[in-house]
Amino acid sequence: MIVRRPAASDRDVVHETLTRCGAFTSEEIRVAIEMFDAGLAGDYALLGIEAEGVLRAYACFGKASLTARSWYLYWICVDPVVQGSGIGQTLQRSVEDCVRHMGGERLVLETSGRPEYERPRRFYERAGFTVHGRIPDFYKPGDDCIIYCKLLGGAA
Amino acid sequence: MIVRRPAASDRDVVHETLTRCGAFTSEEIRVAIEMFDAGLAGDYALLGIEAEGVLRAYACFGKASLTARSWYLYWICVDPVVQGSGIGQTLQRSVEDCVRHMGGERLVLETSGRPEYERPRRFYERAGFTVHGRIPDFYKPGDDCIIYCKLLGGAA
Fold first, then answer.
1. Residue A156 lies in a domain
2. Is residue A50 over pLDDT 90?
3. For chain B, what is the radius of gyration of the CA atoms?
């Protein structure tokens, strides 16, 4: 596995992965690709993991404006064909290392409270995130927004 | 009082008002002006209140992406010279009417937990917002992020 910055040449693979995940609506995929493009342009940070020559997971994150040391994890996506291989955990740790190197001390993320999102929620909870808020029906009726935060602590 | 959309010609007055408020750091003012400009360009919604020919208060808000009917209230600023006149409440109600007209059914906002922000927090609480989350030290050490939400209900 190679941890590397995604490039424009990974765009098609990223689109396929987002689609193959099955978890994302077409609007979510559109927004994710918009943010991937903005990340390539330098507006967000991107980090990916390549296995056997193919980008199999990536994350999009960035500093929260008006904060001293808080960062948002906007998106993390792992190709279903490699889920369970530990690639998600490796990517998560790499993102945290990167944020720490950039002076960040906490990661905040928002995710859905829908049953279909139980797997990513458990992933974040195992990674040390705890719930700091919940907005009922935020995404749509019955689809709450759950706000997670993790303190990154000292150097890894 | 006239409720109207701010224009490019209000930019200097908005800058002065943000400065005169005393509540905002120079970085916050820079971001507020960036969002005002983005609002003029159509990226956010802007609404203001003019009194005696001068824009005395404005709000910046917008639909939360990937949500069906949730909107963010990013910024609300009232000139200290007219604070206490009810202009803030009038602006707040106008924003809510506008969001309802655009199909929104909830307003979410984030603000600081610092003692200096007690006045805006009380303003939002009186307007019907309730706390849905808190991220300790989000802005900086000792400066929590407080997440508020208000259900807008039916037509005003």
1. no
2. yes
3. 15
Q: Which residue of A has its CA nearest to B24?
A: A66
Lowest-confidence region among A77-86, A139-148, B3-12, B87-96 = A77-86
Query: In angstroms, rounded to a whole number, what is the distance separating the alpha carbons of residues A44 and A60?
Result: 7
> A69-120 pLDDT, tens per residue?
999 999 999 999 998 889 999 999 999 999 999 999 999 999 999 998 998 9
| Domain boundaries, position B115 | 2-151
- Domain membership flag for residue B156: no
Calculate how close chain A gets to B40, using CA atoms only, in Å.
20
B95 belongs to a structural domain: yes
Contact A33, A14 (CB under 8 A): yes
Q: Which distant-in-sequence residues (6+ apart) come within 8 Å of A122 by Cβ? A: none
The verdict on a CB contact (< 8 Å) between A106 and B138 is: yes
When CB atoms are compared, the residue of B31, B69, B134 closest to A65 is B31
Q: What is the dihedral of CA B92, B95, B97, B99, to 10 degrees?
A: -140
Q: Which residue in B70, B134, B141 is closest to A138 by CB distance?
A: B70
Span B99-150, pLDDT tens digits:
999 999 999 999 999 998 998 999 999 999 999 999 999 999 999 999 999 9
Asked if pLDDT for residue A23 goes beyond 80, the answer is no
Tell whether A79 is covered by a domain.
yes
**B-chain residues within 8 Å CB-CB of A69?**
140
Q: What is the CATH number of the domain that holds B71?
A: 3.40.630.30
Q: What mean pLDDT is reported for chain A?
A: 94
Average pLDDT of chain B is 94
Residues of B with CB below 8 A from A70's CB? 135, 138-139
Number of folded domains that form chain A: 1
Using an 8 Å CB-CB cutoff, list chain B residues near A26: none
pLDDT score for A154: 66
Q: Please report residues of B whose CB lies closer than 8 A to that of A132.
A: 133-135
A66 and B132 within 8 Å at the Cβ level: the answer is no
Q: How far apart are CA A110 and CA A73, in angstroms?
A: 8
Give the C-alpha separation, B74 to B78, whole Å: 14
